[in-house]
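This follows on from our talk about sequence and fold. Go ahead and set the record down below:
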Amino acid sequence: MIEAILFDFGQTLVDSSEGFRTAERDAQQKIFAELSGCAWDEFIDRYRRTRKAHQDQSRFSRVEIWRTVYGDFDQEPDMGRLATWERGYWQTVNRLTTPFSETIRVLEELQHDYRLALISNTQGEAESEGHRLREFPKLTQIFEVIIVSGENGINAKPDPQPFRLCLEKLGIAPRAAVYVGDDYRIDIGGARDVGIQPVWLKHHSVTRNWPQIDTTVPVITSLDALLSLTTVIQADDPASKSPKKGA
């Protein structure tokens, strides 16, 4: 029996896609302007490969990503300037982040039947800035437990630690929880590795190159689907599709 629904934050409860696109574009243009001897196509290719390599290892600090990019071109950045750019980066992301239209309504309905918790990776924000979920008190006050992984000694998802810590705080077993997230490697893989039933949210309003993965994990395109959680979970359960004996 499912007792709790655990959620990711970014691109699961809130839409930050425009914020990230704008912040990334601004950062790329600033860095490129400081580099010499390279064409834009070469720069952007290296930038994207470097960013992916960091993110694949759950290293999200923009300063560290950018410093590596400078190093790729044998240049040393002004670290103070990078720190200033990073603060501006997160200000842009926060300014252009909004909850999905159904988020608050769905959470308020779900809390009548389930305990709700949040597990979100820090994105490398400066500690003085704090995780961006602090900008949404009306949303976060709904959750019984909030785990910010990647800081304060808590490993970042998909490491099992933040998932297990959340379960421990709730006092429930993995089989009593569902985890909803948008990132297949970090959210779906991380939850499944500790025995939590994952649900993959590929929100219909987000323009994104979703990975093409052959999976039995339930996929939803709106949080509204969670209002019929049992149906969502059973939809991809082979046992639920097997004919009953004597049928």
Remarks:
- The chain has two domains: 4-16+98-240, 17-95.
- The first strand starts at residue 4 and ends at 7.
- Strands lie at 4-7, 14-15, 98-99, 115-121, 145-149, 177-181, 197-201, 219-220.
